[in-house]
Structure formats: C-alpha cells, structure tokens
Amino acid sequence: MPDTVEVTHVPFGLVKGEDGKKLKTRSGETIKLKDLLNEAINYARKDLENRLQSEERKESEDFINNVAQTVGISAVKYADLSQNRSSDYIFSYDKMLALQGNTAPYMLYAYARIQSISREGNIDYENLGENIQIILKEDTEMELGKYLLQLSETIKEVEKTLLPNRLCDYLYELSKKFNRFYENCPVLKSEEPTKTSRLLLCDLTAKTLKLGLSLLGISVLERM
C-alpha cells in the first residue's frame, strides 16, 4: 500500500428487521444485497404504478422500469447512508420509499420538480443569461439562498468525520427549504427581474442536489 494512503477503521451498527432483530431471511439466513435491491425495485414499481393510475397518467414501460430501478436502489443506499454509521437502524421498505421525510424519493422528487419548471416554462437553465443578479426579497428566498452556500462546509465536515449522514441531513434540509420557497414564491408567473432570479435559484438548487446525491452514489431523475 502506498505511503500516501491512510487507512481508517470505520465502525458501523447493525441493520435490523422491523421485529428489532438482525435482518435475516425467514429461514434465518443472511439476506443477500441483490435480493434487497430487487425487492426495493419491486416496491418502487408498485408505488409508481399506483401513482400513475391515481393521476390517470400514461408512461412507457421503459420509463417505468428506469424510475423503479433508480428509486428502488437509491432508496436502499440512502436509507443506509442517512443513518449515523455507528448506530443500529430498522430496515423498512415503506419508510425508505416514502415520498415524504428524509428519503431518497423525497430528494429525487425535489430535483424532478425543478426540472418540471423548466419544461413548463420552456426554460433552458444553461441559457438564462450572463451576470444575473440574484434578488432575495422573500424570507423563503433568503433561507434557500443562504443554505445553498453551506454545501462546501458540509462536504468538508463529511470528509473530516467520515459521517455521510451529515450530507444526507444537508440535502434533506435543502429540499425542504426549496419546497417552502416553491410554495411561497411564484417562479414562472413572476415579473422580471424576479423571474430570472428565481429560475437561477431553482437551477442552483438542482445542481446542488445532483452533486450531493452523486457523492452518495445516487443518480437523479428528470421525471418521476
């Protein structure tokens, strides 16, 4: 091993079933990761199909397969990384696949919502213009703008402590702040220069979510 490589022992807790015991199959054997992932994908697919039916929305089989696989695998990854690594936690498909709370689907949905804004307004985030000034007048705008600046500090903290749940906490809080901003501050219906300023704020949020999730090994979805 090269002298430049530093090896650090990282302790971690147990993954337990909903009965509070160490996660195992019904026969008492250790559950294989591929089986957990396949089951998570099946759960995600059922949830998506139910949502499409309730929304009376039609999507291709390729779309359904891609979303189910991305959401299912992301949910398992995020559920593990969002816990303090030294603590035990309960493995629950229902909780990790929920669209609310500190879950991968919640983050993915926040990202997809931002992309839907660009589609609805026929906006290209990469061509908003040069030297745009971000105008932060509303409380939710200021909260979101200030929080976006904390990404670098958060990543440094994760690197120092080897606690990826700190990044998960940041992304969860960012998603909540964006949702509050979106609910209280019209974007596409605003007048200029507020409209472009808010679009840029949306774009910065999306890029931050995408970067943060990629550091956790999670891919984003343009639509869900």
Account of the 3D structure:
The chain has 224 residues and is mainly α. 57% of the residues lie in helices and 2% in strands. The protein has helices at 33-54, 61-81, 93-96, 104-120, 139-148, 151-161, 165-184, 194-215; strands at residues 15-16, 89-90. A two-stranded parallel sheet has the order 1-2. The longest helix is centred in the first third of the chain and has 22 residues, at 33-54. The mean pLDDT is 93.
Relevant CATH superfamily: Isoleucyl-tRNA Synthetase, Domain 1
Strand fraction band?
Answer: under 5%
DSSP strand count: 2
Shape: globular
Report the average pLDDT across residues: 93
Q: Could you name the CATH topology?
A: Isoleucyl-tRNA Synthetase, Domain 1
Total number of domains: 1
Q: CATH top level?
A: Mainly Alpha
Keywords:
8 helices; Isoleucyl-tRNA Synthetase, Domain 1; mainly alpha; 57% helix; two-stranded parallel sheet; 2% strand
Describe the secondary-structure layout.
Elements: E1 15-16, H1 33-54, H2 61-81, E2 89-90, H3 93-96, H4 104-120, H5 139-148, H6 151-161, H7 165-184, H8 194-215
Helix pairs in contact: 1-2, 4-7, 4-8, 5-7, 5-8, 6-7, 7-8
Tell me briefly what this model is.
With 224 residues, the protein is an all-alpha fold. Helix content is 57%, strand content 2%.
